[in-house]
Design a protein that fits this description.
13 helices; 59% helix; mainly alpha
C-alpha cells in the first residue's frame, strides 16, 4: 500500500493556515484506497482515518444502513470492516446501542503514551542493533523530505505507514511482536493521539528529536537511541496534557475496556 505523504496532502490545501489545518484531514476515498483493495479494506481504511482524525467524533453512533449507503456495499463487508475497527480498539459494540466510536478518556490516552514510551524506546534500541545501512539511509531521507517540504514549525506531518518515522523504527526493530503492537494492534490509537497534538506550537522540536534518534541509530548506540525515543514520547505526552480535551460522560478509562483485554 502506497502511503500518503504530508506533501501530497498539503498540495490539496490551497487556503489560509487555519483552513489548511482543517482540510489536512479531509481525504477522498479514492486517494486513501488504492486499486486492488477489497471493499472491506476500503471501508476500514476510510473509517479508521475518519475516527483517528476526529471527523467521526468519539462516541458517534455508526449506523449500518447509512454506512452501507455511503460506501455502496451490502452489510456483509461493512460488518467485517467494523469488526476490524473493533479489534483496533476504535469502536465498541453494545447489545442495544449498536456500534459507536470509542470514547476514550484523558486517562486512557495518557496510559497509551506511557505504553508507547516503553515500547517505542525498545523499538529504537533494537533498530540501532538490527537496521541495515540501507534502511537507516532511507529513514534519514524520509526525515530530510519532511524538513525540506516547507513544513511550518507548528505542524507535525500527519502521515502513516511507510511514510511515518515511528512506523519505520518499529519495522526496523525486526521484532515480530513489537511490530505487531506498534504497527498493528495499537497503531490506530497511536495515530489518534498524534492528531490530538499535531498542531500544538513547537513541533520543530519533534523533528530535532527525530534527527538525534537517527544519529544514535547510525552510531549503533542502542542505549542512547532508546533514551532519546522514550524522552521524545514523554515530551509528546506533556504536549497532550496542554491540549484542550472534551471528555464524554461515558468515556472509557482503560485500554482493556476499549478492546485490549
Amino acid at each position: 500500500m502506497k502511503s500518503l505523504t504530508f506533501v501530497d496532502i498539503k498540495r490539496k490545501c490551497q487556503a489560509t493556515d487555519k483552513t489548511i489545518t482543517a482540510r489536512l484531514i479531509i481525504l477522498s476515498t479514492i486517494e486513501m484506497c488504492p486499486s486492488g483493495e477489497t471493499h472491506v479494506d476500503r471501508i476500514f481504511t476510510v473509517l479508521e482515518h475518519d475516527i483517528v482524525s476526529g471527523q467521526l467524533a468519539m462516541g458517534s453512533k455508526l449506523g449500518e444502513e447509512l454506512l452501507a449507503s455511503r460506501f455502496g456495499v451490502s452489510r456483509g463487508p461493512l460488518r467485517e470492516a467494523l469488526r476490524r475497527l473493533e479489534g483496533r480498539g476504535l469502536v465498541i459494540r453494545t447489545a442495544h446501542a449498536g456500534v459507536r466510536v470509542v470514547a476514550l478518556s484523558r486517562k486512557a490516552l495518557l496510559e497509551l503514551y506511557e505504553i508507547r514510551e516503553l515500547l517505542e524506546g525498545l523499538a529504537a534500541r533494537l533498530a540501532a542493533r538490527n537496521m541495515s545501512e540501507e534502511e537507516v539511509a532511507s529513514l534519514r531521507a524520509l526525515l530530510d523530505e519532511d524538513l525540506n517540504s516547507g513544513l511550518r514549525s507548528d505542524a507535525y506531518p500527519l502521515v502513516f505507514g511507510d511514510a511515518d518515522f515511528h512506523y519505520r523504527i518499529a519495522e526496523g526493530s525486526k521484532s515480530v511482536r513489537l511490530k505487531q503492537l506498534l504497527c498493528g494492534d495499537l497503531y490506530s490509537l497511536i495515530r489518534l493521539c498524534r492528531f490530538k497534538t499535531a498542531h500544538v506550537p513547537g513541533q520543530m522540536q519533534s523533528f530535532r528529536d527525530h534527527m538525534r534518534i537517527i544519529e544514535a541509530i547510525e552510531d549503533r548506540d542502542e542505549a542512547l537511541a532508546e533514551f532519546l525515543m522514550s524522552r521524545h514520547i514523554s515530551a509528546a505526552r506533556a504536549r497532550f496534557l496542554t491540549t484542550p480535551f472534551n471528555e464524554a460522560s461515558d468515556a472509557v478509562d482503560s485500554l482493556k475496556e476499549a478492546g485490549f483485554a
